[in-house]
Write a structure and sequence with these properties.
Largest sheet: none
Number of helices: 9
Helix content: 55-70%
Distance between the termini: 36 Å
Strand content: under 5%
Shape: globular
Number of strands: 0
């Protein structure tokens, strides 16, 4: 049974809830399209036209231009769909984790290894 009580805030974390899902629908739909090599190529050929095609908001488009995952999450992006976007540029989930924590990729990997001990 679902509770009517809001979840507690987690400092530094954007909760992906129904509101964020609605806010990021166009962004996530665009990122999902990157499952297709043809769509990835179309995006790389003209990013601005591709973003207009999906009717991204200006904050979403600005975050895409900046390649800033934290801004994309704040703009409604879902990490699983954003990984498709990051993959176009050869970035993996460890690159994204490093960006989210303000660490270098090597520092982030070391933190993961230490946490697993």
């Amino acid at each position: 049974m679902a509770s009517n009580h809001p979840l507690p805030a987690i400092a530094g974390t954007t909760l992906f809830d129904g509101e964020q899902a609605q806010k990021g629908y166009a962004l996530n739909k665009m990122c999902f399209s990157f499952n297709s090599a043809d769509n990835r190529a179309e995006f790389q050929q003209d990013e601005e036209a591709y973003m207009r095609k999906y009717r991204l908001t200006e904050p979403q488009a600005a975050a895409i231009r900046a390649r800033n995952v934290l801004q994309l999450i704040a703009a409604g992006g879902n990490a699983y769909y954003l990984a498709k976007f990051a993959g176009i540029f050869g970035l993996d989930m460890q690159d994204i984790g490093a960006q989210q924590t303000g660490l270098t990729k090597d520092e982030f990997k070391a933190r993961l290894v230490a946490a697993g001990k």
